[in-house]
Specification:
The structure is a single chain. By secondary structure, this protein is of the alpha+beta class. It has 27 helices and 25 strands. The strands form five sheets. Strands 5, 6, 7, 8, 9, 10, 11 and 12 form an eight-stranded mixed beta sheet that branches. The protein has a six-stranded antiparallel beta sheet with strand order 21-20-19-18-24-25. Helix 18 links the parallel strand 8 and strand 9 (529-531). The protein starts with 14 loop residues before the first strand and ends in a 5-residue tail after the last strand.
């Protein structure tokens, strides 16, 4: 088929196929909306960033999108790099290039992308949401032809505005990330692949739909309706779940309104919305219910990766590097958020366009309703008014789209693409151009070498090893064959694939590089991913495969699931257990906790607690056992040591880990080691042994292996008096604000994710900006000489577990602890029944600041 089609470039210069957005032809309706808005938005974004580019030119060739960067003040055809003096003349004499040079300098020095994102979320976003809601309220079937025309015009205007916003914001996303990549390599010899792993888990807009699903699941559990998800009839099940006024019903209706309306499988009104895919929606709810989603493994891995990378940056550059890392982490939210809203508008447009198509069929103007997707808005409105193209022309557009859909578009039309002459630009402009190129070039697979070689090798973009059934998704129709736990294999993915990827256990794509959509989503969702696999589409559909997101290799296992690993389950490569002996001649040491400031001897958690205590911050009394003491008790060689630990403390006890790798800037190991609460004197030796041995559990060993930590863990132990908490929880920081999560009783129920806690967002003065009262249906407390979980009275569960005065105390504690350690901290805290506020532990922040 391709041999009979001419692929002529639409103008001078090099035109590149837009594989990052297109998996099949969009249809002329979507083409024209995207085309105009993309060029306008790109032109504004380039100008505001000081880039020497005029715009991003767009063209459709045989139904497929091609784009070209149009330079400012230079030839479009290329022709080699001009001498350096030519660039000097251009940037000193050309009026617009002179302005761009000044703008580029200010863009970087003033970090203008930060203000763009702030104003979007604080001011500009809400009016768009209101306009979307107004369009949603109109039922297309109830409109007159003229009213339907008006809705089509309003929808077109809103969609074009959002696409323009999106492409205007692209430099503000690309440049901070690209600048971080450029300087990571220049200062530390850090490859882009390594650097990207420190960015995962920080784009909240990408994972927002998953968080919404998790709230629905939590509400269903609370109401005792989680078993309803097992029903096979997706349509009737979702109808039952949405009915009534329960919390889960309200959340599910809100999900359908906010996310279900979005186009789910592509960038076109030809693609169904998530609301049109009930089996997929129910499958996503089931999958979220089957897994513990309380933690953010992607963010935790990124923090560990960042700590490792920072050690490779020279000391004189570390402060600037950390600032660049923070900017890069914050850069993606605006792009994904406005993109999601534009997909909601396109979902609304789909309903309008198909209704218009039905009317054209009744009028004899089209053979099928879907043909309306092959008309521009102007043509469609004209046809509804009795004007516009004939039936023959309309049917011809549809026939062309379907004929073109089976083509394989060339990667570029015209001369081979050339990198920009970065070294020739003035320094101010050079930095933004280098950053932009470092980002954009990595949409494709060719910018970086693929470490492993072979037919089924590519860029490993998200760590982990998974075995499961491969499901080739090459068109919208293939989405229906995808089941939870499958491994997605595709030519490429787009943001509209996110609803399907919530069900996937891994991602494999034929195209794409380190910043392709598939790579970003694999990192954000915390699932293994390999992109740029040249022969990916040769993988047999339905075969079982192994995906290694570390090495970038895929292995076809065959048609039968391996007996040792269920489909979609992680393949465990357990490293050898190494329990190091104490240093020769070392004597066991036990000291009061406030004296254990040496992290190399007493571990990170003990050292942090000692520092808090010596600063006058209230921490539960305790003692610290060094590695030799903990090792001796775990071996049963010196049981008297455990008894000696009790002399200054009152039962019950909390026995906590304090490893040499723990609670440092390099690795928090949060949730990896055992904590024993409510321990009595007779059980102390066993509790110490259990905490000590948790350092060598298979999960911890595999976790260390993924992080590249080769030295063995040396586990010291803390024993503290257990605080009889009235309320407890965690405190952390997000974007300069304090976030508090709290519940009744011991804080273990909050950090473990067993309940839905209260959540408060506060300003630095302790004023509550946002609050969400959680269900808090259960609480954990020490009673009758043991830990007991009990129900919380409904009246207590319905109100906040802490009051405004206590919130102000927590904000003050967070500020004081952060000042002590020189940066934001994650804090676990507890209020005793007599109102004392205890800081249970503090570790370097593992969330975005």
């Amino acid at each position: 088929m391709s041999a009979n089609v001419s692929w002529e470039r639409p103008g001078p210069g090099t035109w590149e196929f837009d594989a990052s957005h297109q998996a099949e032809p969009f249809g002329r309706y979507t083409d024209t909306l995207m085309w105009r808005a993309t060029e306008r938005g790109a032109a504004t974004g380039f100008r505001e960033a000081g880039l020497p580019l005029e715009t991003l030119s767009c063209a459709v060739v045989n139904g497929w999108w091609y784009i070209k960067i149009k330079p400012l003040g230079g030839p479009e055809e290329g022709g080699g790099t001009p001498p350096a003096f030519v660039f000097w003349l251009l940037f000193n004499l050309h009026p617009e290039l002179r302005r761009r040079r000044k703008t580029a300098r200010r863009f970087m020095s003033e970090r203008r992308w930060e203000e763009t994102a702030r104003s979007w979320f604080a001011e500009r976003r809400a009016p768009f949401v209101q306009r979307i809601a107004a369009l949603q309220s109109a039922d297309p079937r109830e409109q007159t032809d003229e009213a339907l025309c008006e809705l089509l015009e309003r929808t077109r205007a809103l969609f074009e505005e959002l696409v323009e916003v999106h492409f205007r914001a692209v430099p503000g996303c690309a440049i901070p990330i690209g600048d971080y990549l450029v300087h990571s390599e220049a200062w530390g010899g850090i490859s882009a692949s390594q650097a990207m792993r420190a960015l995962a888990g920080f784009t909240d807009a990408t994972t927002e739909p998953l968080a919404a699903l998790d709230k629905i699941v939590a509400a269903l559990r609370k109401e005792g309706r989680i078993g309803w998800l097992a029903d096979k009839d997706a349509v009737s099940t979702l109808e039952r779940l949405r009915a009534g006024d329960s919390e889960s019903a309200r959340l599910l209706r809100a999900y359908s309104r906010d996310f279900g309306v979005r186009i789910a499988t592509g960038y076109s009104v030809l693609c169904p919305t998530f609301n049109e895919m009930p089996q997929m929606m129910l499958g996503n709810l089931r999958r979220r219910a089957e897994h513990d989603n309380s933690a953010n493994p992607a963010r935790a891995r990124a923090e560990h990766a960042a700590a490792e990378l920072e050690q490779r940056i020279p000391a004189e550059h570390r402060s600037a590097w950390r600032e660049m890392l923070g900017s890069a982490r914050r850069a993606g939210d605006l792009r994904d958020d406005d993109g999601g809203l534009s997909m909601a508008v396109l979902g609304i447009a789909r309903g309008l366009v198909l209704e218009a198509g039905e009317r054209l069929v009744k009028q004899g103007r089209a053979s099928e309703a879907e043909s309306a997707c092959d008309l521009t808005t102007e043509e469609l409105v004209g046809a509804l008014r009795g004007e516009g193209p004939s039936k023959q022309v309309i049917d011809g557009h549809t026939a062309n789209r379907r004929r073109w859909a089976v083509l394989t578009p060339p990667n570029h039309l015209g001369p081979a693409p050339e990198p920009p002459p970065i070294a020739s630009f003035p320094a101010d402009v050079r930095r933004v151009v280098a950053a932009m190129f470092a980002f954009v070039s990595r949409f494709g697979a060719d910018a970086d070498p693929i470490p492993e070689q072979g037919a089924l090798c590519g860029h490993g973009v998200s760590p982990g090893v998974v075995r499961g059934r491969a499901r080739l998704v090459l068109s919208t129709a293939d989405f229906e064959r995808f089941t939870p736990g499958d491994i997605l294999v595709a030519r490429a993915t787009t943001p509209t694939f996110n609803t399907l990827l919530a069900n996937a256990s891994a991602i494999v794509t034929q195209t794409g590089g380190l910043i392709s959509h598939a790579a970003i989503v694999a990192r954000e969702f915390g699932i293994p991913g390999v992109v740029g696999v040249q022969d990916a589409l040769e993988i047999p559909d339905g075969a079982f495969i192994e995906v290694d997101g570390d090495s970038g290799r895929i292995v076809v296992l065959g048609d039968v699931a391996p007996d040792s690993v269920a489909p979609g389950a992680p393949a465990q490569d357990v490293p050898e257990v190494v329990v190091p002996d104490p240093e020769p001649g070392a004597e066991p040491q036990v000291v009061p906790l406030e004296l254990a400031e040496d992290a190399t001897r007493w571990g990170g958690k003990a050292a942090n607690s000692a520092r808090l205590m010596r600063a006058g911050i209230l921490v539960p009394r305790g003692v610290a056992l060094d590695y030799t003491a903990a090792w001796s008790i775990a071996r049963g060689d010196d049981a008297s040591l455990a008894a000696n630990c009790l002399r200054s403390l009152s039962a019950p006890y909390a026995v906590r880990s304090s490893a040499n790798v723990e609670d440092s800037a390099g690795a928090s190991f949060a949730g990896q080691f055992v904590t024993k609460l409510g321990v009595g004197a007779e059980a102390l030796s066993g509790a110490i042994r259990e905490v000590f041995e948790s350092a060598h559990a298979p999960g911890v060993l595999a976790y260390r292996q993924r992080l590249g930590l080769e030295s063995p863990v040396r586990m010291s132990v803390i024993i503290q008096e257990l605080v009889p908490a009235r309320a407890a929880g965690v405190l952390f920081f997000e974007r300069g604000k304090t976030v508090v999560e709290s519940a009744y009783g011991l804080g273990e129920s909050v950090v473990s994710g067993d309940i839905t806690p209260d959540r408060f967002i506060l300003d630095p003065d302790g004023n509550v900006l946002e609050s969400e009262i959680g269900s808090k249906a259960r609480m954990l407390a020490f009673a009758n000489q043991e830990l007991q979980a009990s129900d919380v009275e409904s009246d207590d569960a319905a109100r906040a577990s802490i009051d405004e005065r206590e919130l102000k105390l927590l904000v003050a504690l967070g500020a004081r602890v952060s000042a002590l350690f020189g940066g934001p901290q994650d804090i676990e805290w507890a209020f005793s029944h007599d109102g004392q506020l205890f800081c249970l532990q503090a570790r370097p922040v593992t969330r975005q600041v």
